[in-house]
C-alpha cells in the first residue's frame, strides 16, 4: 500500500476550496435552531449533507446521528463530538441570518461545533476516495447537551463509543481571539449538581418565635452557613463552590411561615469530591438545621462530572494545534461551567479544547446570551485542528498506541 497524502494538508486545502459552502452550512444551522431532543430538522440537514458527500450516517433514537469514515482497526477509531441543540433564548444580534425560530437561538456555539464536525466528515470522505484512509474516524452529532444531565449518556448507551479509541471536541470561546486554541490537561470544566432543600415547621407569630421552629431563620442559616462549612471540608484548590439561586418562603412580615425552600448549585473540578459530595452535603445540612428544630427534605440532583482531559490526549491536541499554527496554543482556564462531554471521558480517553471566536475588535460577548456573535473564521480553525488531529493520530498514536484505554 502506498503512503497516503498528509491528511492535515488535504483537509486544509479542502476547507480553502469549500469555505463559502461551510459558512453557508453554519448560517443555515444558526438560522434554524432547535432545542434539546427536538433537533429534527438539524438532524435531517446533517444527514442529507453527509449522504451527499458519499457517507452513510447512522441515525440515533429520535434525534442526532453519527458517521464512520475509514476502516475498523484493532486500535479503534478516533472520534469527534459535536453538540447540535440550541438554547431557549431570544436572539438579539441583528444578523441577517438570525434565528427564524422565535425564542430559540444558538447562543452557546453549537452551530459552530456542528459545522466544524460536518466539515471534517466531508473532507475525510473526499480524502478516502482520493487516497487510502488507514485509520477509522467517527464523527458524533449529539443532541441535548443543554439539558440535565445531558444527551451524552443516552447516545453512549446507544453504542457511539463502541470501537472508539479516543475522543475530542472543541467549545466556542468568545473571550478568546479567533485563531487561538485553549488547551488544559486535567479538569477544564466542573461537575455541576443542583440542590433543593425544603424546610417545614409549625408556623407562628413573629412576636413568639420561641414557641415555633423558625423556617425563615433556618433558610438564612442554610444560605449563610453552608458555603462556608463546605469550604472548610474540601480542598479550596479544587474549585468547589456552593451558590444559591432561589429562596422562597412567607407571605406576611409578622408571620413565621410553615414552609420554605432554597435551591442552588454545587460545583467542583475534583471528580473524587464530586462522587462523595452528596453524602457530605447531606451531613452539613443536617448539622445546620438540627439545632433549629425544623424538618427538612434534601433533594440532590447529580449532574455531570468535570471534563477531565487526558494528559496524553491533551498533548496530542496541543501538537495538532501547533502543527497548523505555532502560535495557536494558549493555556485554557479551568471553568466552573458544566459540559456533558465529560461522560464520554468516563469511558475513553480524550480532550476538549477552547476555540477562540472573538474577532479581536469591539465588545466581547458571552455564551448563553442572546447577543452572542462569533467570528466565522473559527470554522476554518476548528476544521483544520480536527484534520491535524486525524493526521497526528495516524502518524503518532496509531504507530505507538500512545493513548492508554
Give your account of this protein's structure.
The protein is built from nine helices and 16 strands. The strands form four sheets. An eight-stranded mixed β-sheet has the order 1-2-4-3-5-16-6-15, covered by helices on one side. Strands 10-12-8-13 form a four-stranded antiparallel β-sheet, with helices on one face. The chain has helices spanning 7-31, 40-52, 110-130, 152-157, 215-231, 271-289, 311-324, 342-345, 377-400, and strands at 58-59, 65-69, 77-83, 137-142, 164-177, 181-183, 186-187, 191-200, 204-205, 241-249, 255-256, 259-268, 295-304, 308-309, 329-331, 350-358. A hairpin with a 5-residue loop joins strand 1 (58-59) and strand 2 (65-69). The chain has 405 residues and is an alpha/beta fold.
Task: Kindly list the characteristics that best describe this protein.
alpha/beta, 4-stranded antiparallel sheet, 16 strands
Structure summary:
This protein is α/β, with parallel strands linked by helices and 405 residues long. The protein has nine helices and 16 strands.
Compressed to H and E, one letter per element, the order equals HHEEEHEHEEEEEHEEEHEEHEHEH
Q: Give a quick account of the main beta sheet: strands, pairing sense, barrel closure.
A: 8 strands, mixed
Strand order of the largest sheet: 1-2-4-3-5-16-6-15
Structural class per helix/strand content? Answer: alpha/beta
The total strand number stands at 16
Work out the strand percent.
Answer: 15-25%
The tally of helices reads: 9
Radius of gyration: 24 Å
**Which residues form runs of ≥5 with pLDDT under 50?**
none
Distance between the termini: 28 Å
User: Helix coverage percent of residues?
Assistant: 25-40%
What average pLDDT do the residues reach? 95
- Principal-axes geometry comes out as elongated
EC number: 3.-.-.-
Enzyme class: hydrolase
Protein name: Hydrolase YxeP
GO molecular function: hydrolase activity
Amino acid at each position: 500500500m502506498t503512503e497516503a497524502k498528509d491528511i492535515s494538508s488535504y483537509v486544509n486545502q479542502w476547507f480553502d476550496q469549500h469555505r463559502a459552502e461551510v459558512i453557508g452550512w453554519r448560517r443555515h444551522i444558526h438560522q434554524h435552531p432547535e432545542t434539546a431532543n427536538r433537533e429534527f430538522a438539524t438532524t435531517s440537514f446533517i444527514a442529507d449533507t453527509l449522504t451527499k458527500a458519499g457517507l452513510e450516517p447512522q441515525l440515533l433514537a429520535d434525534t442526532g446521528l453519527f458517521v464512520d469514515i475509514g476502516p475498523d482497526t484493532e486500535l479503534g477509531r478516533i472520534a469527534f463530538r459535536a453538540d447540535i441543540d440550541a438554547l431557549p433564548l431570544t436572539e438579539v444580534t441583528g444578523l441577517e441570518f438570525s434565528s427564524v425560530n422565535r425564542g430559540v437561538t444558538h447562543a452557546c456555539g453549537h452551530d459552530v461545533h456542528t459545522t466544524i464536525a460536518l466539515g471534517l466528515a466531508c473532507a475525510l470522505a473526499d480524502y478516502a476516495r482520493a487516497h487510502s484512509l488507514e485509520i477509522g474516524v467517527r464523527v458524533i452529532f449529539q443532541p441535548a447537551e443543554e439539558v440535565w444531565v445531558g444527551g451524552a449518556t443516552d447516545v453512549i448507551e446507544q453504542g457511539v463509543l463502541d470501537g472508539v479509541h479516543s475522543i475530542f471536541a472543541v467549545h466556542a470561546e468568545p473571550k478568546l481571539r479567533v485563531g487561538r486554541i485553549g488547551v488544559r490537561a486535567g479538569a477544564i470544566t466542573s461537575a455541576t449538581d443542583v440542590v433543593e432543600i425544603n424546610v417545614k415547621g409549625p408556623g407562628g407569630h413573629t412576636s413568639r418565635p420561641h414557641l415555633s421552629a423558625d423556617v425563615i431563620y433556618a433558610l438564612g442559616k442554610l444560605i449563610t452557613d453552608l458555603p462556608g462549612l463546605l469550604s472548610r471540608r474540601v480542598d479550596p484548590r479544587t474549585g468547589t463552590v456552593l451558590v444559591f439561586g432561589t429562596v422562597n418562603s412567607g407571605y406576611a412580615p409578622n408571620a413565621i411561615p410553615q414552609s420554605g425552600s432554597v435551591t442552588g448549585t454545587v460545583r467542583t473540578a475534583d471528580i473524587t469530591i464530586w462522587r462523595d459530595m452528596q453524602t457530605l452535603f447531606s451531613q452539613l445540612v443536617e448539622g445546620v438545621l438540627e439545632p433549629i428544630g425544623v424538618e427538612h427534605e434534601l433533594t440532590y440532583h447529580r449532574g455531570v462530572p468535570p471534563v477531565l482531559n487526558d494528559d496524553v490526549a491533551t498533548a496530542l491536541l496541543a501538537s495538532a494545534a501547533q502543527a497548523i499554527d505555532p502560535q495557536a496554543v494558549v493555556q485554557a482556564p479551568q471553568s466552573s461551567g458544566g459540559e456533558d462531554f465529560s461522560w464520554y471521558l468516563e469511558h475513553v480517553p480524550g480532550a476538549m479544547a477552547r476555540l477562540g471566536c472573538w474577532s479581536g475588535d469591539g465588545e466581547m460577548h458571552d455564551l448563553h446570551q442572546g447577543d452572542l456573535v462569533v467570528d466565522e473564521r473559527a470554522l476554518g480553525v476548528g476544521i483544520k485542528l480536527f484534520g491535524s488531529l486525524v493526521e497526528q493520530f495516524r502518524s503518532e498514536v496509531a504507530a505507538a498506541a500512545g493513548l492508554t484505554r
